[in-house]
Amino acid sequence: MPCRFSVWSVAVFLVVVPVFFQAPLVRSLPWLSLTLTGTWLMAGISLISRSNGRTWGDLLIGFTWTWLAGSIYWGWFRWEPFLHLPIESIGMPIVLILLSQGKGRVGSYFYFGSLLGTAMTDLYIYWVDLLPFWRQVMYADPDWVPLLLREAATTLQHIAPVGQGVILALGLLITGLLPLKSRQPCWWAFSGAVLSTLIVDLLFLTSSFFV
Asked: What proportions of the chain, in percent to the nearest 5, are helix, strand and coil?
């Protein structure tokens, strides 16, 4: 069985890197992004069939559900923020069935961690009233997007939004660190997915100040 830190590292990779790969792909070629879901799923199933690849296959299958949801939402529904979390939850029935059968713990916990991170990010957007900017960015001509992002970033430079961000960030940090006390790889996959949300959010926040 792979070491727990390896599972954690791959979980972080599966959240952070695809954001920068899938995001541009799904905007220009949504059907290709959606089709790749099958590729990840088949690769995961193939790895599970090997004794030395079971954990990685499990993790890749959990990642498949996040990729599927991302392809659907960002490909066709990105203009409506209220549909974001429901669509991101599309894999929930599958992972619950797998867990009820005692299967797929690593991938399912990764999915739960990723979904929790998404929920917390959306909560912050609702909390500080960034929804108008969300819609404007999605509808805007690409040349106007940097200006809109700078305007959105400016609204966050006040005590209330900063405090709200700190509260949610601390919540994610604690939620992501506590599972590292466990010896079970599934909890390390969960931790990697949660903590990587902080990385992605900080990268986007930082970039919005410099675009």
From this structure: 85, 0, 15
